[in-house]
Amino acid sequence: MRAWGFKSNGDPEVLQEFQRPVPTPEAGQVLVRVAYAGVNFAEVQHRRGEFGEPEGADGYDVPGLEVSGVIVGLGAGVEGLAVGSSVAAYLPTFGGYAEYVLADAAFVQPVGTLPLADAAGVPCVYPTAYGVLTDAGRFQGGETVLIHSAAGGVGSAAARIARKLGAAHVLGTVGSTEKLALAKTLGYDALFLRDDFTGAALEATWGQGVDLVLDPVGGPVRRGSLDVLAPFGRVVVYGDLGRHGDWQADAWDIWKNNRALAGYNIGDVARRSPDTLGAHLAFALSALASGELAYQPPTVRPMDEVVHVHRALESGATHGKVVLAVW
Ligand SMILES: NC(=O)c1ccc[n+]([C@@H]2O[C@H](COP(=O)([O-])OP(=O)(O)OC[C@H]3O[C@@H](n4cnc5c(N)ncnc54)[C@H](OP(=O)(O)O)[C@@H]3O)[C@@H](O)[C@H]2O)c1
């Protein structure tokens, strides 16, 4: 089969097409013929080497945390799924940029009436958005949420889920003025530039502050997020887009006003609580297919453009979700 991966870490150009055998499903696994692979920022980090060097037996690592496609094989003991079904799958150990991939049955769900292209961007993004809001963020209806990287994959999904769960106000930040206009179409009540959001966020909440901040950026953005947090508010940390690394907070700032800093990692949820992840994926696919959750279809690019797509995602030039067509 064809696969797209890298033999050494580096710039987008290290991604190349190569051949590897179609894998055979073992117990509990599902073999999916991939139609579309969702593109995630974590795959940029994977390629850059932030998760270590390539360790495939043939020398290659294949990125890709989420796919849609058709089941073509089932390992022993897999129940409730059938060959020929159209499904979406979360892949905690990557591998989605390929014609075929093995997925753990716990993370494979039928897409229902959702088109395969739209379903490819769901399995990593939506459980993450749902998990940061509800599990880590303990979101309650009537609260105000501030979403950093508001026009991105996880950010735009989180905005829609927050709205569906009854948020009073959904605020967001983006990195450039061009993205402000785009993000407005995603249903935010107010949007700010990330470099200077604290005053505007406090003004938009009449000085009360926000109840929940979703932060994949880090550094000064994380610091500023605590500054705009209302008493009993929570900041959920779930990424380090700015590559700021370590960061310090004043514990007094947190405990004196009953604030909380929480973390979320989908890979860890997959390892420790696979059923939670499977349930969040099933919820998202069904809510998107029924129209209960509104969404904008992803941008679809051919897999041959994977280098270009990685470059665009890495430079902050993409908006919404991008999926790569494998068929
Ligand atoms: N913890 C988890 O379980 C988990 C799961 C999935 C994703 N994530 C994290 O969530 C974040 C978003 O992922 P995604 O796949 O949905 O990506 P994305 O938001 O679609 O794309 C990345 C966006 O991040 C923004 N950004 C902010 N600072 C940046 C920087 N220094 N360099 C590049 N872009 C920057 C850019 O938009 P603006 O400049 O307009 O803001 C860019 O478009 C990533 O940090 C990812 O690692 C975490």
Automatic annotation (TrEMBL):
SMART domains: PKS_ER. Keywords: NADP, Oxidoreductase. The keyword Oxidoreductase applies. One of its GO terms (molecular function) is NADPH binding. The keyword Membrane does not apply. Residues 10-324 form the Enoyl reductase (ER) domain. Pfam families: ADH_N, ADH_zinc_N. InterPro entries: ADH-like_C, ADH-like_N, ER, GroES-like_sf, NAD(P)-bd_dom_sf. This is NADPH2:quinone reductase.
